[in-house]
């Protein structure tokens, strides 16, 4: 037994020698039973030099310090030529740490490959393998755990990297930027997948998620909870929010603490409304001069009113027409078709239809700057096919080869078109029992009804008899062309005037066999009454002198017996002659001449009586024809 502070100099300590302290020497060192202080092939020396203590053994042996005789807890120091050259630390029968001959420290491994090599004894999740105690309380505040195949390193450039399976997974650069999947984090948090998209984050970006394919950021919540992204400031932690509610599967956006937009579980979108009933529902408080939606550059001009959707042709500083394109499948779902509503910079609005995959829509209607509406035409004229509606009320319809306007009244008879002046009816066109009628004025005005074979007078909106005139006073019609007759003063056959004719007739003097030269005459025929007027002078040569003279060549045959007066000059008349008359029978087209003498007898006029070279004969003959 050697007590504390005992001195041994140059003394060999054999096996089974115990150095122990007394009970009073609590700080003494005890070398207890069966502790070897030397190897089997050499002695262990202990000596002091320059105030140092050395325990030396053979270079191929080892020095072991045990906590008890069973070697459960011990430190074993191997000589430099021993194959296990190094220092081992054991708890029980298990080695827990090793310092090998190269100075590598292994914890949990007997073959450290780096200066500090820490290895877990399983593939469990990372634990605080290395504990860091930043305070005097010795409470572990942080830790570093690395599973098999992983590595965490801090290099001289102040860069921290984490590696698994030989590939760097995470980096914190010298600026404090954290990169996951990238070795060049450009933002405070930069997550990259598959090499990234090649995009660059805009200035002020804090978190940049960059993928080379479909990229997702997932926020998972309970089935009856909400997922939320808040936007806050120093005075309001959640001034704005995007909230997904798993209770009703709706997505809402809040601004200044109030909901501004919602998408419900059916995909309906609501702005300013929380109960949706349409794919897009916009509701706004009735504030004048406030628009609901704006597309393109926002220009604060008068005319933007409540409920207005504004589409501006100026986009990104470039001026153009403002348009709205409409696309749909055709009736057979075979092709896409399109239309376009466009406001042109010349202050006109156009509507185009008929667009297809490779064909632009064609203009179908235009409203020009004057408010004129043009349909199927672009010129405001009255000769191009199409329709023209002016703001002053003028309307023009032009069609090639067919009717430009059809008015169709269904079911009942009556007015089809009504004409008004200052709001008061001045006429109408309609139907009565299948006939077209045209009426003037609301009442006491004339009209016409067009039947299958006749035109009937109308008055005060109905058929009329004897109340409507054709022309009045100095307001007359010029010509009346009739193929039939005119009933005057009644409707019987005797009231019908069916003919009127004017013309010339070639009349002649005749002896019954021979004719003289032509006598130019004119005639007028009214109904059956014919009036012939003529003048004959001189030569009646070629006729037989003793024969009774006749006037032949009347334009129409006689239908009745009749007579007429003739005025003559230089004619050979019998003694006692009172007058010269003509007479005709009920048929034929010639008349004889007779002298009426004072005794009441008739004396036929012969050719010789008319054979005076200077005779003149004037006649106006009126007779009836068939």
What do you see in this structure?
With 626 residues, the chain is mostly beta strands. The protein has six domains: 59-118; 146-211, no CATH class; 226-282; 327-398, no CATH class; 411-469, no CATH class; 500-624, Sandwich (Immunoglobulin-like), CATH 2.60.40. It contains no helices and 48 strands. The protein has an eight-stranded antiparallel barrel with strand order 40-41-42-48-44-45-46-43. A seven-stranded antiparallel sheet has the order 25-26-27-28-29-30-31, with no helix packed on it. A six-stranded mixed sheet has the order 3-4-5-6-7-8, with no helix packed on it. β40 (500-510) and β41 form a beta hairpin. The relative contact order is 0.03.
Compact summary:
It contains no helices and 48 strands. Residues 1-53, 124-128 and 131-143 have low confidence and may be disordered.
Structural class: mainly beta
Oligomer: single chain
If helices are DSSP runs of H or I spanning 4 or more residues, what is the number of helices?
Answer: 0
Overall pLDDT level: 80
CATH fold type of the largest domain = Immunoglobulin-like
The biggest sheet amounts to:
8 strands, antiparallel, barrel
CATH C-level name of the largest domain: Mainly Beta
Lateral strand order in the biggest sheet: 40-41-42-48-44-45-46-43
Determine Rg (CA atoms, Å): 67 Å
Strand content: 35-45%
What's the number of structural domains?
A: 6
**In the CATH hierarchy, what is the architecture of the largest domain at level 2?**
Sandwich
- Overall shape: rod-shaped
> Which spans of ≥5 residues are poorly predicted at pLDDT below 50?
1-53, 124-128, 131-143
**What percent of the residues sit in helical stretches (DSSP H or I)?**
under 10%
Compute the separation of the termini in Å: 187 Å
């Amino acid at each position: 037994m050697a007590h504390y502070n005992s001195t041994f100099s140059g003394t060999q300590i054999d096996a089974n020698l115990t150095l122990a302290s007394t009970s009073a020497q609590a700080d003494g060192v005890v070398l207890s039973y069966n502790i070897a202080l030397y190897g089997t092939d050499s002695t262990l020396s202990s000596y002091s030099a320059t105030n140092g203590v050395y325990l030396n053994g053979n270079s191929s042996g080892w020095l072991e310090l045990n906590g008890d005789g069973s070697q459960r807890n011990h430190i074993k120091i191997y000589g430099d030529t021993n194959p296990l050259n190094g220092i081992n630390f054991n708890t029980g029968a298990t080695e827990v740490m090793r310092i090998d001959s190269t100075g590598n420290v292994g914890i949990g491994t007997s073959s450290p490959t780096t200066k500090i090599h820490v290895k877990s004894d399983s593939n469990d999740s990372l634990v605080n393998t290395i504990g860091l105690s930043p305070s005097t309380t010795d409470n572990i505040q942080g830790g570093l755990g690395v599973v098999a195949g992983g590595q965490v390193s801090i290099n001289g450039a102040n860069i921290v990297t984490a590696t698994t399976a030989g590939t760097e997974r995470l980096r914190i650069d010298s600026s404090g930027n954290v990169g996951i999947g990238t070795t060049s984090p450009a933002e405070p948090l930069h997550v990259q997948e598959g090499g990234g998209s090649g995009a660059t984050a805009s200035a002020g970006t804090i978190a940049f998620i960059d993928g080379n394919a479909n990229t997702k950021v997932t926020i998972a919540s309970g089935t009856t909870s909400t997922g939320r992204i808040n936007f806050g400031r120093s005075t309001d932690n959640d001034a704005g929010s995007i909230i997904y509610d798993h209770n009703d599967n709706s997505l809402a956006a809040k601004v200044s603490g109030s909901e501004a937009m919602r998408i419900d579980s059916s995909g309906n979108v609501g702005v300013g409304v929380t109960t949706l009933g349409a794919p897009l529902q916009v509701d706004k408080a009735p504030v004048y001069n406030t628009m609901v939606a704006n597309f393109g550059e926002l220009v604060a001009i008068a005319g933007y009113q409540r409920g207005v959707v504004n589409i501006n042709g100026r986009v990104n500083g470039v001026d153009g027409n403002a348009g709205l394109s409409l696309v749909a499948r055709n009736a057979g779902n075979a092709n896409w078709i399109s239309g376009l509503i466009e406001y042109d910079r010349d202050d006109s609005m156009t509507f185009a239809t008929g667009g297809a995959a490779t064909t632009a829509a064609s203009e179908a209607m235009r409203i020009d700057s004057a408010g004129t509406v043009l349909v199927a035409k672009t010129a405001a004229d009255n000769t191009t096919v199409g329709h023209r509606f002016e703001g002053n009320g003028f309307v023009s319809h032009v069609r090639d080869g067919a009717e430009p306007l059809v008015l169709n009244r269904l079911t009942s008879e009556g007015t089809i078109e009504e004409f008004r002046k200052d709001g008061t009816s001045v006429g109408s066109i309609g139907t009565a029992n299948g006939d077209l009628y045209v009426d003037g004025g609301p009442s006491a005005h004339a009209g016409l009804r067009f039947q299958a074979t006749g035109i009937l007078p109308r008055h005060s909106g109905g058929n009329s008899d004897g109340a409507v005139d054709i022309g009045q006073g100095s307001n007359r019609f010029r010509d009346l062309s009739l193929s039939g007759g005119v009933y005057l003063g009644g409707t019987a056959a005797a009231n019908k005037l069916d003919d009127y004719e004017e013309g010339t007739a070639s009349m002649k003097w005749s002896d019954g066999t021979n004719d003289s030269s032509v006598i130019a005459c004119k005639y007028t025929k009214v109904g059956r009454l014919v009036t012939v007027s003529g003048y004959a002078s001189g030569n009646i040569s070629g006729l037989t002198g003793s024969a009774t003279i006749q006037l032949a060549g009347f334009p129409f045959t006689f239908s009745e017996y009749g007579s007429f007066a003739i005025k003559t000059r230089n004619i050979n008349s019998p003694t006692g002659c009172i007058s010269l008359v003509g007479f005709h029978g009920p048929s034929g087209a010639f008349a004889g001449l007779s002298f009426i003498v004072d005794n009441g007898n008739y004396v036929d006029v012969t050719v010789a009586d008319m054979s005076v070279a200077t005779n003149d004969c004037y006649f106006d003959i009126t007779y009836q024809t068939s």
